[in-house]
């Protein structure tokens, strides 16, 4: 076997030698990962990446997310950009400024190198756009039938500015609940593809990095209580987590919740409830009532928050229930998701 | 489905709901991960973990490693402790003091919860022994046949003390090469199990965290040029990386390389070369010749370096070849591993 020729990214496939620690792995790292992720940390090819810390950084944050989305490519994105956005957002939701990413790849033998390259290029573009370089990584290969194409685990580190203390425990009855835009786009985009549904207007994943929006929000309203991105389990899971942590209830208003017509229609067809559907470019914010309008205005002024809305409020409720006032005026419970609605959505 | 009862860790199995973002996932996180990893960062159950930085820390290091070892349990360890040791060691090899770990789990539907619990307990014990808590994590579940039991990606962060600058580019001809103990134990333990070989003396994986040894070494010899743990690709891969980065040759002496008799015998039986076999609790160090004996003494005084040895030296060689002087007095080339010798060794 000769490795003097460049890798054939058009027709080649992942084989076990790409995870062996030998010449083939070194070549894959050099010609694919280092080339596209393109930064000095990776080029140094050490076991880990060393980086300086911004002066005055008091606390750091670390977040990790494994991505197993199926299919790997979907309208509006792919596992590559999703794996960058997901972790950047997890760091951002703590109030942290994301600085660096690590990426661990688990590849299945036989996976087309062309697809892997497409995924890596998408990751590289997402990382570049977010301004958060992928500085270290790892590649493993498993035998055909022991994986599913590619799984990507990304880990992000960031710094939290002094004074920023986001925690759902700080939520108080009377606080307002905001979302940054239309709910359910990501989950419905994936499920439509899986179910081979086509709609007049294509539904695209909302996958996006939200740290710019978060920075603008914290700048305007440092007193934000808590932020979460409603991924798996959707808005319902986030509100139940908030209620449990804060020991109060949550009341949302159906008519205030932004859901696209096409998403609502698809949900009806698929038997899904948009409140439980995953988002990958939206956030839920809680703030004191007196700051809510100002926060809303700041969010709407940002491209990622154009369709933001105030959707409800925390209320006194020792049971910690999440309730929704429906468009018909009644109230219904919004419980945790039981069982599995949407496997491998992210 | 009721989740009011505790999880049945004796007879239960992973199902897709454990990755759904709903109640079942929250319960698994609480009753398994938070319980055993046991620290306040995890208990806060935020999207990421915030932690203070040690005062005066100039640089940070981040390293990540996906673990796909098969079988999951092996003599001397399992994927759980291995996933802690592997990443702690990657941080340590940069000269960093490991501080925190993140863990991403990719579980296969149907995987016995008893096995998962055993793995998590092993991780928890390894993290506790290393003094490096697992502060954040993620759990995904894939359908049966789309994974292989459990894959674990760990990411570690640490701080690098001012003045510590490890890099293979700093290696100079004349520098001495040291290893911290017997080579090949991990790879041979795994391969023996896979091939159903049994030996008179059981060969156990050497999986161990090396940051204590590294701290002692740097304390005694701050001028160490570079450190690497010879995992996939073994000693041969490390020496070839060193040679390539430093632009010089490497000469090792076969009779000086510590290999257990049982490992050498097993390698002969399995058609393996101990120089290419993975280790999970050993390191290779390069230092100026005048520091070598002192470094050796410090290593031997540490439990993880008891069987350390000086095995060779960097030499002038524009080709960057790695050569071994054999026990018969001749020299042979020690090239990169071509192809795949030992898939899924870590």
From TrEMBL, chains A, B:
It holds the Pfam family AIRS_C. Residues 172-323 form the PurM-like C-terminal domain. Residues 47-160 form the PurM-like N-terminal domain. Belongs to the HypE family. This is Hydrogenase expression/formation protein HypE.
């Amino acid at each position: 076997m000769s490795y003097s020729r460049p890798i054939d990214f058009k027709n080649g496939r992942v084989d076990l030698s790409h995870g062996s620690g030998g010449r083939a792995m070194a070549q894959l790292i050099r010609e694919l990962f280092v080339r596209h992720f393109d930064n000095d940390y990776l080029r140094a090819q050490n076991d880990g990446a060393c980086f300086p810390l911004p002066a005055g950084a008091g606390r750091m944050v670390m977040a990790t997310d494994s991505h197993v989305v199926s299919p790997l490519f979907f309208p509006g994105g792919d596992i590559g950009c999703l794996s960058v956005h997901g972790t950047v957002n997890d760091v951002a939701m703590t109030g942290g400024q994301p600085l660096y990413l690590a990426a661990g790849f688990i590849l299945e033998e036989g996976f087309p190198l062309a697809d892997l390259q497409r995924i890596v290029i998408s990751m590289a573009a997402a990382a570049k756009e977010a301004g958060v370089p992928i500085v270290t990584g790892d590649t493993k290969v498993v035998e055909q039938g022991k994986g599913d194409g590619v799984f990507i685990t990304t880990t992000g580190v960031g710094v939290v500015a002094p004074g920023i203390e986001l925690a759902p425990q700080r939520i108080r009855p009377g606080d307002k609940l905001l979302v940054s835009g239309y709910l359910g786009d990501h989950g419905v985009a994936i499920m439509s593809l899986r179910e081979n549904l086509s709609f007049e207007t294509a539904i695209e994943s909302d996958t996006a990095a939200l740290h710019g929006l978060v920075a603008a929000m914290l700048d305007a309203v440092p007193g934000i209580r808590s932020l979460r991105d409603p991924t798996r389990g959707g808005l319902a899971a986030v509100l139940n987590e908030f209620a449990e942590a804060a020991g109060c209830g949550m009341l949302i208003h159906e008519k205030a919740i932004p859901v696209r017509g096409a998403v609502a229609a698809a949900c009806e067809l698929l038997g899904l409830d948009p409140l439980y559907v995953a988002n990958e470019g939206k956030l839920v914010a809680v703030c004191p009532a007196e700051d809510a309008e100002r926060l809303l205005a700041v969010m709407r002024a940002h491209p990622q928050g154009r369709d933001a809305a105030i959707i409800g409020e925390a209320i006194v409720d020792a049971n910690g229930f999440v309730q929704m006032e429906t468009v018909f005026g009644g109230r219904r419970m919004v419980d945790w998701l039981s069982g599995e609605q949407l496997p491998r959505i992210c």
